[in-house]
Design a protein that fits this description.
By secondary structure, this protein is mostly beta strands. It contains one helix and 17 strands.
């Protein structure tokens, strides 16, 4: 009994120690004027030839109020996304993006089959019926990613310390995704700061 108790205790301590020493990157993203930037996709890839696990997690982009929700999604290559329509009208969604071209004819409800995104890149969604509907999907080859919140902050959980390439992308950014090398410590979160330049905001056609 004592041996069993000792084994359970050691296992619990080992798990607690692993959780406490988990590696992570805490990313703060600002635009060029210094304002926190939400909906930035940040991903981390281990340097060298280290293999990354394929942790496929299905995602969902809803259609509500003539909008795609969420506006920005991020998934690992090979994952599926479903597109349920909760509006009272039918939608005809599509993508002409090289990373994933597809066309889902007029439908409502959840009858449409999920789409598999098997190529890394950026996918822009639209609706043939409602021109104002748009959404963005970032497909990445690594399972280590996150999206910034309203405060421009994201946290990427990692399996181990080491050197990683951090990539940051926003759907309205100027130029290519920003990359930087980050040396991640074995305990707590390693801080990283990113500044992205955005394209000028288009004028509102309805404004006086």
């Amino acid at each position: 009994m004592n041996t069993l108790f000792r084994s359970i205790t050691l296992a619990a301590l080992s798990l607690a120690s692993a959780a406490a020493g988990a590696a992570a990157i805490a990313v703060q993203v600002h635009d060029s004027s210094g304002k926190p930037l939400a909906d930035v996709v940040v991903s981390a890839a281990p340097d060298g030839n280290a293999a990354v696990p394929q942790t496929l997690k299905a995602a969902e982009i809803e259609q509500r109020g003539l909008k795609f929700m969420p506006l920005v999604s991020v998934i690992q290559t090979g994952s599926k996304i479903s597109f349920p329509n909760f509006d009272k009208v039918k939608h005809h969604i599509y993508s002409f993006s090289p990373a994933k071209k597809f066309d889902q004819k007029l439908y409502s409800g959840v009858a449409a089959a999920p789409q598999v995104f098997d190529k890394a890149g950026t996918v822009v969604l639209g609706c043939n019926i409602h021109d104002g509907m748009v959404a963005y999907i970032k497909v990445v080859d690594t399972p280590f990613f996150a999206k910034t919140d309203a405060a421009g902050v994201a946290r990427i959980e990692l399996p181990a310390a080491g050197k990683y390439t951090l990539t940051s992308w926003h759907f309205n950014m100027l130029g290519a995704p920003a990359e930087q090398s980050v040396v991640v410590k074995g305990e707590g979160a390693t801080a990283a700061s990113v500044k992205l330049a955005l394209k000028p905001t288009a004028p509102d056609a309805g404004a006086p």
